Amino acid sequence: MAEADTEPDGDERDGDERDAAFRRRSLGEIESARSRHMWTRSAVHATDDAVVTGQWNGTVTAFDADSLEPRWSVDHPDHPVAIATIDGDEDDDGRGETVVVAGRGETGSIVALDSETGESRWRYETAEDVGDPVKDSVFYLPYVVALEVDEDGRDGDERLYAATRRYEREGETRRWHSTVLAFDADGTVRWRYETDASPIALDLRDDGERLAVGYNRCMGDHDNGLVVLETDTGDLAWTWDPGTAGDRRVGDVSFDGESIAVSSHGDKRGYLLGPGGAERWAVDLATKTEIDGETLYAYPNHAYANDGRAVFVTGNTYAEESRETKRRHPNEHRIAAFDDGGDVLWDAAVEGFVHELGTDGGTVAAPCAQNFRVRNPDAHAIRWFDLESGPTGCERLEGIATAASVDDGTIAAIEEPVAYHDGDVTHGEYAVVFGRPN
Residue ranges under compositional bias (Acidic residues) (predicted)? Predict the structure, then answer.
């Protein structure tokens, strides 16, 4: 919580009909995606009474959950790519719920907004930690890749955690600069953890005492795919690594009690770790497989664990000797769930690339884009699953689904238009899609 010669097996129930519970609201214009998936360009976050969206043009909008009418709209200094909320307590300090929006851009800004008005409460520029971009390219911009919120806080106050990174390249030398930050609710920085690796995921243990950080690329002195930090101080508690050659390490991390589910980019397996990094079990997800003389693999990009269950999602097929192949790994674009002993509970096709997972308790929502080798618009959808039993529903979209959020039965997602490189039709529109399916 990653084109086969034969169709993958597994439960294919996906509720092909559109769900009448879903509604949509246009978000205006955005450049159409092409056949291959693009970088993260949108964000969405569902709460009990609102849906907040972040658009590539910098606009952040809060929509009423019942009417989908805008409550407020403001400009973010960067491209908003992640959203979280801090509940707050009006009885104690007059500060109600806060919407926190993370950006990718010149400043890598984290902005805290009043949930009712959109008024700015505080702003922090993570470029102060990771440095300014050295090139005018999206891949070189400071990028806040993940947010985590501790509503209770070990000292009674809410806390926010963020992972930010910046990439640079000079000739054949590639470098990452990254920082994990802990904030008090008022924006005060409590501590920093800095490395020369590329963070990709954060997850907070339920008791708020440990923070897991997944590192995807390790090219410098930092050489661990998983770091677990003490949340009070930012001190290192323990580390783990798949122990594989190369700089690819971890795709995602997810706490379940004291266990952590980890998707490994190093060996394309899924792991469940105990305290201190003890390996409880490991499963092959999209490990290297030879088909017609080619060695193929796919990255397990997502992991989610809850209540003794762990789910992993795999991505696109790659060939060991080339980035291009007409073949497909048999476990490409799959979601699979495992019990606490590592035995498979169920698996299913997601049919295309999943940018992220929306999760809440036993519900997992996967926003699915196209399989770029097949380029079938029927694959575009929001699919949701029960951790115990598997596929439970599907909302088909004309465009690709690129972001999702789940909150107490509510599913929100972003649709983006796509135009395949070998076609002359644009599929879908830029919109927020929102529903409470049964």
Answer: 1-14
The C-alpha atoms of residue 199 and residue 162 are separated, in whole angstroms, by 10
Radius of gyration in angstroms for the set of CA atoms belonging to the chain, rounded to a whole number: 20
Edge to edge, the sheet with strand 50-54 lists 43-46, 50-54, 59-64, 70-75
Map residue 139 onto helix, strand or coil.
Answer: helix
Confidence at residue 1, expressed as pLDDT on a 0 to 100 scale: 31
Taking residue 224's Cβ as centre, other Cβ atoms within 10 Å add up to: 20
Nearest residue to 249 via CA among 210, 283, 284, 222: 222
Q: Give the pLDDT of residue 151.
A: 78
Report residue 276: phi and psi, to 5°.
Answer: 80, 0
Q: Which residues of the chain have pLDDT under 50?
A: 1-18, 91-92
> CA angle, corner 47, sides to 46 and 48, nearest 5?
130
Q: Quick one: tokens of 146?
A: 């993940």
Q: What is the pLDDT of residue 167?
A: 97
Q: Are 148 and 161 in contact (CB under 8 A)?
A: yes
E strand or H helix at 129: helix 127-130
Q: What's residue 108's pLDDT?
A: 98
DSSP state for residue 33 in the 8-state scheme: B
Question: Do the bridges between strand 344-349 and strand 358-360 make them parallel or antiparallel, or are there none, so unpaired?
Answer: unpaired
Give the type of residue at 237: A
Q: Domain boundaries in the chain?
A: 22-435
Looking at domain 22-435, does it have CATH number 2.130.10.10? yes
CA 172, 178, 184 angle in degrees (round to 5)?
A: 170
- Report the DSSP pairing between strands 358-360 and 400-407: unpaired
pLDDT at 90: 53
pTM for this predicted structure:
0.93
Q: Nearest to residue 33, comparing CAs of 388, 355, 406?
A: 355
Q: What's residue 156's pLDDT?
A: 62
- Which residue from 379, 383, 351 is spatially nearest to 366, judged by alpha carbons? 383
- Tell me what pLDDT residue 153 has: 61
| Token pair of 383 as six digits | 């699919």
The per-residue pLDDT for 374 is: 82
Secondary structure, 3-state, 87-112? CCEHHHHCECCEEEEEEECCCCEEEE
How many angstroms separate the first and last alpha carbons of the chain?
23
